[in-house]
Structure formats: structure tokens, C-alpha cells
């Protein structure tokens, strides 16, 4: 639907490595493996990840080939299989140059879809073979943001100190190419495979980079892995430091963890697919905003189909919710496609969808003038589109 593309939108749940262009994965330079790969695509029924690449990685001991063989052959992957895909993607992308490149492209793609504010989340990674620390990983992400030149990028606080300034000032980014502008903020993710120490390192990094566009913390990764108590000290520390937190919550049935997460009072949660009645009531009473990822939930078979998705149960009583993409690359979607899907599945018209997009302004983690700017952008779009 054309109007879903043309209206301004806010994206609050997008994982960097899940949002890579197919074409970039197709032609990525595997300098460390000296292998080229082809035929990667999340939405074909053909082999979706190069056999050549997977075999070679298997031979090098980077992956267990038999573990991924069936995953790479299908277009829709169950949740556990999606995480195997991410392991493969990370092997290809975790070097500074590639991280900067995919960041730049992901921002350009969201901007082209008329996303005016993007909270991009990513897990800072250490990769000794590439001399990469969590810090240098995030620096590469920031470098990627600064290198965007097809659209004006607002990344907060760049001028407060010169630690990351290099040759790229905020004014430098406002280069006048095109009239579009996108606000980009980062959430640093803790992966559920990580230790308490690694989680703490991520939060400390986020605190340090608060003035450089980092606005919050996310807990993500395979929900069947890791224990809530492992991450709790780092999450509590983040809270004390004033960093807003969003949690992947209820992707699988886990009543004890779901209750602990809600009791923690995160600023937002993602998914909320498997909540029991009591937790559902609590979620609503606490009015915790939910990041809804329709295509992701359906493709991973967490939810059977759009028409039985809990979107409706939240939307009807006006519970705060935000439509999001999760992983545009892995699930072959876009934010406009998510709006179009919600519109057709739940019978919502242009007016309701615009209001939904506009309401998302209230749930962003960025503070200060951004909120006012976004309100003005939506007010002006309202006049233009009506
Ligand atoms: P990255 O953090 O490497 O930039 O983005 C990919 C990572 O995001 C994955 O390895 C995984 O930890 C997380 N992720 C992406 N999609 C999902 C999802 O649907 N659920 C959960 N729990 N984590 C996800």
C-alpha cells in the first residue's frame, strides 16, 4: 500500500545483523575465508545460504554443518533455527569494515521507507581474530552512521566532546544531499548467551556512549538459552544509570521469567507472544508498551497467523504498542510492509494507521528536543497527507 510507504514512521525494534540487505550478504567479501558466496535469500525456497560457504565454515570448524544444513534450505525458520542463521551471519559480518557498511546501508534502507526515527539495536561483539573489542564494534557502528550521505542523519550529542568526532561533525552530516532526515539512536543489546561480566561490559559501554547516540539497553538472543538472573545485575546497573531498557519477553512460554521481567518494569518489551492470563493482565495494568513484530512472529511460527495475533487484544483497549520489523533482512520485510499487514489483517484504515505511527513518538528512548521534532514532523505530514 503506497500510503504505508509515504507516511512517516518510527522504528523501535530493529536488529542490525537481522536487517542486512540480501545483496550485501550475497556479495560480501569473505576475506578471512577466501570464499565467495551466493544465493543467500531469506525468502526463496531454493538453497538460501551458499552451500559452498556453509561447507567451508564447517570444514574450518566454525559451524557444525549438519546442524545448519536443514536451516539453510528453508525460507521460514522456526525460532531456534533463526538463531542458527544469526550465527552464520555473524561469522560473515563481524569485522569493522563490514559492520560499518551494513550499518550505513540499514539506515539508508529505513530512511528510504520513510522511517523518520530509528532505534537500531545491536550486540557489541568481541572478535579477537579481527582485533575487535565490544567498544571498537560500537565505534564501527557509529562510523557507519556517520558515513551515511544519501540522507541527513541526526545522531545525538556528537558535539559534546571530540572523542568520536574525527572528521565527521554533526554539521558535516547535514550535507544538504536530499531533503530527508532520519534520527538514529542506538540500543546496545545483551545476548542471552553472555555472562554477567559481558553483560556488564555492554552496559558500561552504553553509559559511556550516552552522549554519542546510545539511548538504551536491550536483552535479546535465543529465549531458550540463559537465565534471567545472569543478566539482572547488569540490567539493574543500567536502570540506576538512567538507561531505559527493553526486554525480549515471552517469545516462548516461560512463566517464571515473564513475571520477573514484568516486575522489573522495563520501559518497553518486545514480542509478548506467550503470556498467561495473569501476566497479560499485569502487562496491561502496568501499561508497558509492546514492540509488535508481526511478520517475525508468523514466520518463526510463534504465532499461527496475523488474524490470531495479540496485536488486536492490545490495540482494542488502547494499550501502548508499536509496529516494528525485528529483522528486515532475515524476514524479508519492511516497516511499511508491517503497517500494510496490520491494516489488512485487522481492518484498520489509513487514519488509524497514521495515528498508530504517530503514537510511537511517546515511546522512543531519546530525550530532549527529538520528541518535539517528531511531533512537528507528524503534524506536518498529517496536513500533507490529508
Ligand atoms: P545483532 O545484535 O548481531 O546486530 O543482531 C542479531 C541478533 O539479534 C541475533 O543474534 C539475536 O541475538 C538478536 N535477535 C534478532 N532477532 C531476534 C528475535 O526475534 N528474538 C530474539 N530474542 N533475538 C533476536
TrEMBL record:
Coiled-coil portions: none
Organism: Salvia splendens (Scarlet sage)
Adenosine deaminase domain span: 74-369
Superkingdom: Eukaryota
UniProt protein name: Adenosine deaminase domain-containing protein
Record-annotated membrane-spanning stretches: none
Keywords linked to the UniProt accession: Hydrolase, Metal-binding, Nucleotide metabolism, Zinc
UniProt family annotation: Belongs to the metallo-dependent hydrolases superfamily. Adenosine and AMP deaminases family.
GO terms of biological process kind: adenosine catabolic process; inosine biosynthetic process; nucleotide metabolic process
Catalysed conversion reaction: N(6)-methyl-AMP + H2O + H(+) = IMP + methylamine
Cofactor entry: Zn(2+)
Record GO terms (molecular function): adenosine deaminase activity; metal ion binding
Amino acid at each position: 500500500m503506497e500510503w504505508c510507504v509515504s507516511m512517516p514512521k518510527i522504528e523501535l525494534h530493529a536488529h542490525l545483523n537481522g536487517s542486512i540487505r540480501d545483496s550485501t550478504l550475497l556479495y560480501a567479501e569473505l576475506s578471512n575465508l577466501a570464499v565467495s558466496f551466493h544465493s543467500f535469500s531469506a525468502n526463496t525456497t531454493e538453497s538460501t545460504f551458499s552451500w559452498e560457504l556453509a561447507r567451508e565454515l564447517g570444514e574450518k570448524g566454525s559451524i557444525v554443518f549438519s546442524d545448519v544444513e536443514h536451516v539453510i534450505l528453508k525460507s521460514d525458520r522456526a525460532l531456534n533455527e533463526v538463531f542458527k542463521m544469526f550465527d552464520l551471519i555473524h561469522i560473515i559480518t563481524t569485522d569493522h569494515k563490514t559492520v560499518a557498511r551494513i550499518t550505513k546501508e540499514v539506515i539508508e534502507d529505513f530512511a528510504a521507507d520513510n522511517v523518520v526515527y530509528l532505534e537500531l539495536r545491536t550486540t557489541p561483539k568481541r572478535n579477537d581474530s579481527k582485533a575487535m573489542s565490544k567498544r571498537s564494534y560500537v565505534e564501527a557502528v557509529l562510523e557507519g552512521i556517520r558515513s551515511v550521505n544519501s540522507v541527513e542523519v541526526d545522531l545525538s550529542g556528537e558535539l559534546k566532546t571530540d572523542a568520536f568526532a574525527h572528521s565527521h561533525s554533526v554539521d558535516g552530516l547535514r550535507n544538504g544531499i536530499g531533503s530527508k532526515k532520519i534520527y538514529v539512536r542506538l540500543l546496545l543489546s545483551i545476548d542471552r548467551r553472555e555472562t554477567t561480566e559481558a553483560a556488564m561490559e555492554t552496559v558500561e559501554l552504553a553509559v559511556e556512549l550516552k552522549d554519542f547516540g546510545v539511548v538504551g539497553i536491550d536483552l535479546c538472543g535465543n529465549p531458550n538459552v540463559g537465565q534471567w538472573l545472569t543478566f539482572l545485575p547488569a540490567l539493574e546497573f543500567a536502570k540506576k544509570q538512567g538507561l531505559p531498557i527493553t526486554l525480549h519477553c515471552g517469545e516462548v512460554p516461560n512463566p517464571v521469567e515473564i513475571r520477573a521481567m514484568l516486575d522489573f518494569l522495563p520501559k518497553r518489551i518486545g514480542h509478548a507472544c506467550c503470556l498467561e492470563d495473569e501476566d497479560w493482565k499485569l502487562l496491561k495494568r502496568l501499561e508497558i508498551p509492546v514492540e509488535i513484530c508481526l511478520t517475525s512472529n508468523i514466520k518463526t511460527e510463534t504465532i499461527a497467523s496475523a488474524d490470531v495475533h495479540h496485536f488486536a487484544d492490545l490495540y482494542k483497549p488502547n494499550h501502548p504498542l508499536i509496529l516494528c520489523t525485528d529483522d528486515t533482512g532475515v524476514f524479508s520485510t519492511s516497516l511499511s510492509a508491517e503497517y500494510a499487514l496490520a491494516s489488512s489483517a485487522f481492518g484498520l484504515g489509513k487514519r488509524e494507521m497514521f495515528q498508530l505511527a504517530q503514537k510511537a513518538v511517546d515511546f522512543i528512548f531519546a530525550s530532549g528536543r527529538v520528541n518535539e521534532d517528531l511531533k512537528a514532523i507528524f503534524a506536518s505530514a498529517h496536513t500533507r497527507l490529508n
